[in-house]
Amino acid sequence: MTRTNAARQRMLDLFGCFEDKYVIGLLSRPDRRRRIERDLDHLGLTVDDLGIRYFDGLVFDDAAGFPGIGVRGCFNSHRTLMRRCADNGRPMLVMEDDVDFHADAFADLQDPRGMLDRQPWDIIYFGYLKPGPLASANALEPYAGGTIGGHFYAVQPGFAGAIADYMDACLDRPPNDPVGGPMYRDAAFTLFRERNPQFTTLLSAPPLAGQFSSRSDLALRPRFYDKLPIVRDAVGLARGLLLDMKRAGAGSR
Questions:
Q1: How far, in Å, CA of 30 to CA of 165, rounded?
Q2: Phi and psi for 120 in degrees, rounded to 5?
Q3: Domain locations in the chain as residue ranges
């Protein structure tokens, strides 16, 4: 079996463990949805093959105490899905539309369902930016520290309901409240987990996804070339071409 075929099968195996799978993305960013579909196409997959549904990210006209309107939208989009997971009573897989699946990590993955069943968990970060590399390989490691990156994670309904309640309460508190007010999603999840150690967090080692380099919708001060439509589109095209070249190189091994 080639590594591309192995990655495709392991991805199907992992996604098959979840009935509910959502990608959060703005309707104003169809480029990101196309990029995900192109990314999966390199593995011979489609969003339908994986059972992925798009969740249209929430958009606001004012920040309402958050660091920016994009931060508010991201926070509330995740909060809405957490409430949906709790109401449905089923584990949920959540992604953001800048998710960059690591084909090599998927190819090395062994028995995804067995990994999920071998130990209790409440939230699993399959993709993250921080912490740095863990010592283990092809494993799910318990972790109690802070994380950065909500682009690929899974939650159990009990955790989802509890974090949704916490995020609801954050909306009623002022910014910089020590218990938690309007803030980034990463910070909300980290603060909640610190205060509720009864919930078990696992990290995939190595991570199964990173974040694709693209214009950020959370940036408080967008880079100058992200403000100019023609230049912005050219930069986006270049980013996509670089990703295609990387995928082609990985698939040839």
A1: 31
A2: -70, 150
A3: 3-221
What CATH class is the domain 3-221? alpha beta
Q: How many of the other CB atoms lie within 10 Å of CB of 108?
A: 16
- What is the DSSP code (8-state) at residue 63? -
pLDDT in tens, the chain (253 residues): 799 999 999 999 999 999 999 999 999 999 999 999 999 999 999 999 999 999 999 999 999 999 999 999 999 999 999 999 999 999 999 999 999 999 999 999 999 999 999 999 999 999 999 998 888 888 999 999 999 988 999 999 999 999 999 999 999 999 999 999 999 999 999 999 999 999 999 999 999 999 986 545 554 444 443 444 443 443 344 444 444 444 444 444 4
CA angle, residues 155, 113, 51, in degrees to nearest 5? 65
